[in-house]
Design brief:
Layout: H1 5-39, H2 43-48, H3 52-77, H4 79-88, H5 91-105, H6 110-124
C-alpha cells in the first residue's frame, strides 16, 4: 500500500461529507425548521402553506435564484481577494514562482529545475498527490 493512501481517502471522505452530504442534510434541515418554527406558528402563513411539500417547492423556487445571485456577486467581488490570500499561503506556488525567477536569472540549480519538472509531470499524470 502506498504511503499516503489513507490520507487521500480521508481527504476524499471530508470533501464528500462536507461539500455534498452535509449540504443536502443542512438544506433540508433548514427548510424543515423554518416551516415548523415560522410557518406553522403564524396562522396567516399556515393558511397559505398548508402542506410542507407546497412550502418546499415555493421555498426552493425563491431560495435557489437568490443563492445564485449571491454566489455570482461573491465570484465577481470576493474571489480575487480569496485567491490572493490563498496564493500567499501556498508554499508550492511560492516554490514554482521562485524557481521560475531563479531560472530566468540563472540562479537555479539543475537539481531544482529537475525537481520542479518531475513534480509538474507527476501532477499532470495524476500521481502528484502521492508524493
Amino acid at each position: 500500500m502506498k504511503q499516503g493512501w489513507f490520507k487521500r481517502r480521508w481527504y476524499d471522505f471530508r470533501n464528500g461529507h462536507s461539500i455534498y452530504l452535509i449540504f443536502a442534510l443542512t438544506f433540508s434541515n433548514f427548510v424543515l425548521i423554518f416551516y415548523r418554527l415560522l410557518i406553522e406558528r403564524i396562522p396567516f402563513l399556515d393558511e397559505i402553506f398548508t402542506d410542507l411539500w407546497f412550502f418546499m417547492i415555493i421555498f426552493v423556487l425563491i431560495y435557489v435564484p437568490v443563492a445564485v445571485l449571491i454566489g455570482h456577486w461573491h465570484k465577481k467581488t470576493q474571489m480575487r481577494v480569496e485567491t490572493e490570500v490563498l496564493t500567499r499561503q501556498n508554499p508550492l506556488f511560492a516554490r514554482f514562482i521562485r524557481t521560475i525567477i531563479d531560472i530566468q536569472t540563472g540562479k537555479a540549480t539543475e537539481k531544482e529545475v529537475n525537481d520542479v519538472r518531475e513534480l509538474l509531470k507527476s501532477i499532470e499524470e495524476g500521481t502528484g498527490m502521492s508524493k
